[in-house]
Amino acid sequence: MKLLYLYIGHVGRPLAYHEFSFSDDYLVHFDRENKTLDIRKSPHPQVFAYGENITGLKLLVGKNGCGKSTILSLLGLSPHDLRNEFLQYKDASSPTQEQAYDWFSLYHLEGDLFALEGYNPSVVVKTGFCLQNHYSVSFRYDFTNHQFLDIDVLQESRNPETNQKHVNQLNCLFYSQEPSVPWYARPKRQKSDPYNVCFFPRYDISQVGYYAVEHFLYLAAQKDKEFYPFFDNDPAALTATLKLRRNDINDLTLFHQDNSLAEAIYGSGQSFLSLPVLALEKQFGRQSELSCCHSMVIRYLEELLVFSLKEHPIQNERVFVDQADAGEAVRYAKRRDFLLGFIESLTKTPAPPDSYKNTVMDSYDLYLAKQFCAALEQIPEQFFPAGDQAEIRLSSCGENFLEPLMVCYDQNHGAKEHELNHEAFLAFHIQNLSSGELALIDLYAAILSGIREVNQQADSILLLLDEPDSRLHPEWSRLFLKRLTDLLKSDRFCAYRFQILIATHSPLLLSDVPKKDILCLDASGGTLKVTPANHGFMSNLNDILLDSMFLQSPFGAFAEDYTNRLLQELSRLKETLQASPSLSLHSSLPHRLALLEEKIAVIDEPYLKKVLLKSLRQLRELWDAQTSRKKRIQYLEEELKRLKALEEEP
Fold it and tell me: Which residues make Cβ contacts (< 8 Å) with residue 499, sequence separation at least 6?
């Protein structure tokens, strides 16, 4: 199963009425006027391959704003997200023919069986079916008569028990890095399409969860052969930090305690768990009642309760009775269960009439609290330097005991129905990463988690990457395609067939791809043109920059302007010297030539520097020649005066 072709008619963007071919297996052309789609088997099918399970790789290149992201969005977003990002979809319930968007993508399923997906089926599909604006249909293609046969609707069913055996077998993963700027607002995307509108599932993997990132870093830190080579610095040195944020009861230490809140939770005479810092413990000679791990769990639960009770004061009907003579594990379990029991009672207690909530605390928050407690308890005590934080060196983890905790954070972010943000009480972060390392981790964690989420029936994955190397050092960009294809060919993912489409501005990526697989979007002249590249696999980077990347020069614009001004000044000086015989006009020339020499010394391009220095040397020679002639003339004039004076003497 494979993406073959995309036609964009009108989508309210500058990109309009263009065709894009993504496979060498078939030649496809759409005749818009006659609404006919011509599909022919290619006489030169694809031979070059990045691996047995990588069925194709194409690059989209072009200047900013030429439409690369639009192409990936049409292919990778669900209809729900498309309606949000292409706003005219919802401007009118019945748009006119001029207003109506139209685009479609063509997929090969097997043999003569194909599928179409797009918007506005009347553009290409002639059928008696009542299709939605966003449609998915399969059909058999008659290569002899060039016509559709046996058109069937795919979008209505994903039931694997039906005869539509291709439904769900192709999945799409879409990744893009959006700049984090406060003034730009992109509609929030769904991670997947829950409405079964499309032929194959689409997953937006741009927003990576905690579990995905931690899982990737754990594999790298454990020197997993598939992930460890991605880093220049040793990922084994990375440290994950978990810290309790004392948002509401940060003053509840040895010096000050809110007894009213403590009594509301524990009953008369009870206090919050004392968690002084180590220095205070040593100063006052007081030891924590519980281990650091257990202390952190209890304090987290106390934070949750204080946050809720400050808004809706409730008195616990039960009273906590500590067993001072019991073991630490028993005392901890008793206090933990008591606090969880109070939280559970709050999920059944009606909120005041003026509250927007039905109960004081949401039942999902109770579920999350239990999950967070269980996950924290799996972290060994050795990683807790104090009762309010944990520091975990990833290479020191014999097993990945952080995974349950990361799942909790993802559940906390993913659920909309609960009020509390549990990360506000338990802050988790990984330290000491550069921006490039963050971008690399984000991308590969997204791919790793995305492939894990795809439909179980999937055997083909369309991977859409929008400028994935934009924040990488050129050396990492140079290694990007090799690392990516090596990963997708590894034992972990070799069961899937991958087709890859990448939008990029990196000439280093183009040097890794045959020119026939590079689509250049040229917007110069006011009209967008889609052309194949003239330079690609193993081409010189300057050739790629000037041709395929549409650069006007291989030099920086400031440096080029600087050099042009030097050339102009040298030319003007030469003309002045040649045109003006008067020595007095050129008295400042030696200083100007010395200054030009200093300016030329900055230039590092050897040939250009040599040309400029040659021009400077010619100016000096011309100056010296003119100076020498003038001095000779002056000498001869003075000698003539002297001789005349001698002749006039008696």
Answer: 2, 3, 22, 54, 55, 56, 57, 460, 461, 462, 463
Rg (CA), the chain: 36
Three-class DSSP category at 179: coil
What pTM does this model have?
0.83
* Burial readout 56-65 (b: 16 or more C-beta within 10 A, e: otherwise): bbbbbbbeee
Residue 344 contacts residue 301 (beta carbons within 8 Å): no
With vertex at residue 160, the alpha carbon angle to CA 157 and CA 163, rounded to the nearest 5 degrees, is 80
Within its chain, how far is the Cα of 568 from the centroid? 44
For residues 558-575, one letter each, b for 16 or more C-beta atoms within 10 angstroms of the residue's C-beta and e for the rest, the string is eeeeebeebeeebeebee
Residue type, 228: Y
CA 411 to chain CA centroid, nearest Å: 22
Q: How far apart are CA 483 and CA 649, in angstroms?
A: 98
Letter for the amino acid at 589? Answer: L
DSSP assignment of 248-292 equals: S-TT-SSS---HHHHHHHH-TT--PPP---HHHHHHHT---SS-H
3-state class (DSSP) for residue 277:
coil
Calpha distance 454→53 (Å, rounded): 17
CA 275 to chain centre: 40
In order of 98, 209, 238, 271, 443, the CA distances from 434 in angstroms are 49, 19, 12, 44, 14
At 427, which helix (H) or strand (E)? Answer: strand 426-430
Conformation bin of residue 6: beta by default, left when phi > 0, alpha when psi is -120 to 50: beta
Give the model confidence (pLDDT) of 172-183 as tens digits.
999 998 767 777
Average pLDDT, whole number, for the chain?
Answer: 82
Q: What is the spatial distance between Cα 261 and Cα 273, in angstroms, rounded to a whole number?
A: 12
User: Hey, how many other C-beta atoms are within 10 angstroms of the C-beta on 167?
Assistant: 25
- Helices (runs of H) and strands (runs of E) counted in the chain: 16, 18
Q: Where are the alpha helices (DSSP H) in 162-271?
A: 210-221, 259-266
Is 107 in contact with 1 (CB distance < 8 Å)? yes
Polymer length in residues for the chain: 650
> SS3 of 461, please?
strand
Report CA-CA distances (Å) from 156 to 133, 134, 148, 159, 186: 13, 12, 20, 9, 29
Mean pLDDT in residue range 441-468? 89
- Residue ranges with strand state E in 434-516: 460-466, 497-503
Residue type at position 553: S
Neighbours of 457 (CB within 10 A): 15
∠ CA 490-496-502, rounded to 5°: 85
Rounded CA separation 23/27 (Å): 8
Q: Are 149 and 139 in contact (CB under 8 A)?
A: yes
Whether the Cβ atoms of residue 351 and residue 312 lie closer than 8 Å to each other: yes
Q: Which of 565, 542, 563, 573 is nearest to 609 (CA)?
A: 563
pLDDT of residue 251: 46
Enumerate residues 6+ apart whose C-beta is below 8 A from 115.
106, 107, 109, 136, 137, 138, 139, 154, 166, 199
The answer to whether the CB of 533 falls within 8 A of the CB of 520 is: yes
Instruction: For tokens 């021009």, name the residue.
Output: 615
**Model confidence over 119-147: pLDDT tens digits?**
888 788 776 666 777 888 888 999 998 88
